[in-house]
Design a protein that fits this description.
488 residues, alpha/beta, 46% helix
Length: 488
């Protein structure tokens, strides 16, 4: 038997290194195990992913008298007299707080406040490398005295800390608390507050939907859409997709108890789920009750629900209309594997994973969106700005040549982020929430410069030996664990 092929450090040949005897399902499972094992060992090796590096030069020790006391007193009084000077005299204008109470982290649920640090640091790393701005992970305890997670605790924290940041990215806050947290902070903070699980997922999903519908030769307004999952992500997807032209009367959404409709008194009775009740009022006028019935003749199935596989049934896809579109976006395992959905007749399949085609990846959204908001010093991020970002992503992919295996840009395409940032900033000007007004090209040029510099700095740290390359042993160990785990 030939020796297994070694995985390269860039991981680009990963698919070629699994045993030839593995089925498609085994390969998919092995990839999940591989990345989990590599993640754990990689984090242990580096002790996290983010560090603080000075941006001001130190020509000599006497410069500390300017950068700190006594000279810095002038900076303090300038900002005291004109608070907006904080954007010019500190890093505030290029700094984002990644705030979470870690109550809904990926598919793992409540992992305790510090359990969210890996995700929030990862978010900060993506923001720096892809968006050209800095970020700080802030995982907080939102529990009240009775031990319940209190949205008011998050709201108060963000309101108090906002003066140190140019924007806030909310992350992994469970529903229904996430609805109130975002809605209150969007209106009451002086800086933009963005909940990536809601708005980011919806934005990137909409981008994929726009191109998928185009490839299928359909109009969004004519599409019957079934939504599996009624969490904050999918309810926001529905809102943005409707705002972009879909007909809410042709939409049917399902939660763990069944379809959402005007007779769901259990949802109406709990005021915390006001966003879900809005869906009940606006969609499914015929009160279709089952997924099997809803999928018959449907144009699109958008699943953001429970990790699979076998959550979405092949039979449902077979019953859909011509050229059915399936988004199976649960992480870490999609509700149905792409090859199974394709075998059932799906025309286009998208997932939340980068090792399958058409990744619905928030990472092509939030770096550009937040960069655009920072550049124009937006007061908030409106739905119009989010839709502008979705259109930006869709058009960027279309220019490269969309096909059923490519409907959304990937995060390794550097050009997508400054384009998206400029489009978002221009939308902010249209909405009257921008405090710094420039031309599209000026926004683009600043974003491109910052992103290029961030990537060059990361490469420089590695080449100079300040950040060690990952040891090959980590990759080899992860692959061995993945193969063993699936072979049992």
């Amino acid at each position: 038997m030939a020796a297994p092929k070694k995985v390269n450090l860039d991981l680009k040949n990963l698919d070629e290194c699994f045993p030839a005897s593995f089925t498609q399902e085994q390969v998919a499972k092995a990839k999940t195990l591989f990345y989990k094992e590599l993640s754990e060992e990689g984090h242990r090796f580096y002790c996290g992913k983010i560090q603080t590096v000075p941006k001001a030069a130190l020509a000599g020790f006497n410069w500390f008298n300017a950068w700190y006391t006594p000279g810095v007193s002038r900076v303090s009084t300038n900002i005291r007299d004109r608070n907006d000077a904080s954007y010019e005299l500190s890093n505030r204008g290029n700094l984002v707080a990644v705030v979470s109470d870690s109550t809904r982290v990926l598919g793992d649920g409540d992992v305790t406040p510090s359990g969210g640090l890996g995700v929030m640091e990862g978010k900060a790393l993506l923001m720096k490398y892809l968006g050209g701005f800095d970020a700080v992970a802030l995982c907080i305890d939102s529990k009240d005295k009775s031990g319940h997670n209190d949205p008011e605790a998050i709201i108060e924290f963000v309101k108090r800390v906002q003066y140190s940041f140019g924007a806030v990215n909310l992350e992994d806050i469970s529903q229904p608390n996430c609805y109130r947290v975002l809605d209150v902070l969007r209106e009451e903070c002086e800086i933009p507050v963005w909940h990536d699980d809601q708005q980011g997922t919806a934005c990137v999903t909409l981008a994929g939907v726009l191109n998928a519908v185009k490839l299928a030769g359909k109009k969004l307004s004519d599409c019957k859409i079934v939504y599996l999952g009624a969490g904050s992500a999918n309810t926001t997807c529905l809102r943005l997709i409707n705002s972009a032209g879909a007909d809410p009367k042709k939409a049917i959404m399902f939660d763990t108890k069944g379809s959402l409709h005007k007779n769901r008194t259990d949802i109406k009775a709990d005021a915390r789920f006001y966003r879900k009740w809005e869906v009940c009022e606006q969609t499914n006028p015929g009160c279709v009750m089952t997924l099997e019935e809803a999928c018959k003749g449907a144009d699109m199935l958008l699943a953001l629900s429970t990790p699979g596989p076998n959550v979405v049934k092949a039979e449902w896809i077979k019953s859909m209309g011509p050229k059915p579109i399936v988004f199976a976006c649960a992480n870490p395992v999609p509700e149905i594997y792409p090859y199974e959905a394709k075998a059932a007749g799906a025309f286009i399949v998208a997932t939340g994973r980068g090792d399958f085609p058409n990744q619905v990846n928030n990472s092509v959204g939030f770096p550009g969106i937040l960069k655009g908001a920072l550049l124009c010093r937006a007061r908030k991020i409106t739905d119009h700005m989010a839709i502008a970002a979705a259109n930006s992503l869709a058009k960027f992919a279309e220019k490269k040549g969309i096909n059923p295996e490519f409907i959304i840009p990937t995060m390794d395409d550097t050009g997508v982020f400054p384009t998206e940032a400029a489009d978002v900033a221009m939308a902010a000007i249209e909405d009257g929430v921008a405090r710094i007004k420039m031309t599209w090209q000026e926004y683009y040029d600043v974003a491109a410069r910052d992103i290029t510099q961030s990537r060059a700095m990361t490469d420089c740290l590695t080449k100079a030996g300040f950040v060690a390359p990952p040891p090959q042993e980590l990759v080899d160990k992860a692959m061995a664990a993945a193969i063993t785990g699936v072979s049992k």
